[in-house]
Amino acid sequence: MNSILIIDDERSIRETLEQILVYEGYTVFKAESGPDALLLLGSKEPDAIFLDVKMPGMDGFEVLTKLREMGRRTPVIVISGHGNVETAVEAVKLGAYDFLEKPLDRSRLLVTLKNCLDHHQVLSDRQLLQEKTEKTSPLVGGCSAMLEVKSFIQKVGGSDATVLVTGENGTGKELVVKAIHKSSARRERPLVEVNCAAIPRELVESELFGHEKGSFTGADRQRIGKFEQAHGGILFLDEIGDMNAEAQAKVLKAVEESRFQRVGGTTTREVDVRIIAATNRDLSAADSGFRQDLFFRLNILSIHLPPLRERGDDIELLLDWFMADLARKLKTSPRRFEPDTLALLKSYSWPGNVRELRNLVERLLILVSGQVVRLEDLPLLPGSSSAVSTDTSFFSCTDFQEFKTRSEGAFLQYKLKESMYNVSRTAELLGMQRSNLYKKISKYGLQTHPGVESGAD
Fold it and tell me: What is each CA distance from 217 to 223, 224, 244, 262, in whole angstroms?
């Protein structure tokens, strides 16, 4: 229920406004002077204010000035029986949403109030989104490759040219795109993301360009596509290497001409969109299956994000950053790393890159009760002990079946610890059913947690 504060020295105006607003379902507070209103605002948080201009002692313009000095964002509708253009302009300059003349027209008053509340809600939502975006993990790192990435972002931010961001999964491609958006002239306009790998092949065109009602089975209403949603802003095509050939052709046409048609539509729609694409594949390779004309169109500006294994000097910085950031979110205290623990983490290959490092820090904050992370607190990483021997000298095996058993067990154990003992992820990486992997874990007595054997024979 929205609450409204009425500030007016005329009792009849206060009571008339109160009757109208209460009837419409609003909660009403009243003040007969500027000082009374400011005192009331010390304990109340109205959603909007009706403010009279001509009041003894402190007039409406002084109240507006005080509100802004206090940092209050409450929208204000100024009312006055002595209205003129100059008064209205002055009110808006001081931050008022609108100006109404007395005697007040009930219909216009209610419409203005509704528009005011709706406008303020949009601004509040945008502010929250901006604050959330600004809190997004920055591009932490001081190695030469990351300095090059940061320099690239600064240089291309002001351009409208297409950008291609490449790098392995988990290297932070999305963060680079957000940083470019934030530094661009389009930062006040939307950043719309499309995960090309997650959209069913038959729905890619509808997702990108939208569709008209009845254009295909299941299209029971009109749909606005991502290109239109991103008008004036940036369209981020993530994992574009997984887009099918037909969709690639239409994207190429849309990028080159800045126009398209919805699926099932006949109207050509023009859009002003900057394209940023990302992929973990080499799109220039002859066997990539990706249209080379589209690749060259996307590759006007490009940056490659290095894998974490090539950023050894940044690992400690990232550990400290995620430790502080996640500890705050989890409402706990950051942990410190023993020198040996830190040395092991810096030597680890990090197949999941920065995302894997972040997940490890979150896991440690939840599971480690002490203030220091020791070697025994870590999941089993390469370089630590293993329940199954990883010795590849299997020549002592008496027959081929024994060799298969020993080597398969060693291989699976290595893959499990490489995936931080995430069984689902290990199965996915190996291309096998999770149930099948569980059977082999039981068969070989593999570890599924650091230092804890399954107990199977």
Answer: 14, 17, 21, 15
CA distances from 428 to 133, 216, 308, 436 (A): 31, 34, 21, 12
Determine whether 331 is exposed, middle or buried from the number of CB atoms within 10 Å of its CB (0-12, 13-18, 19+): exposed
Backbone φ, ψ for residue 57 (5° rounding) = 85, -75
What DSSP character marks residue 333?
P
Range from 103-117, 193-207, 442-456 carrying the lowest mean pLDDT: 442-456
Output phi, psi for 407, to 5 deg. -70, -40
Instruction: Return the CATH number at 403.
Output: 1.10.10.60
Burial pattern 117-130, b for ≥16 Cβ within 10 A else e, equals beebeeeeeeeeee
Same domain, 162 and 86: no
Count how many domains the chain has: 4
SS3 of residue 101 by DSSP: strand
Rounded to a whole number of angstroms, the CA Rg of the chain reads: 31
Q: Which domain holds residue 189?
A: 144-306
What share of the chain has pLDDT > 70, as a percent?
90
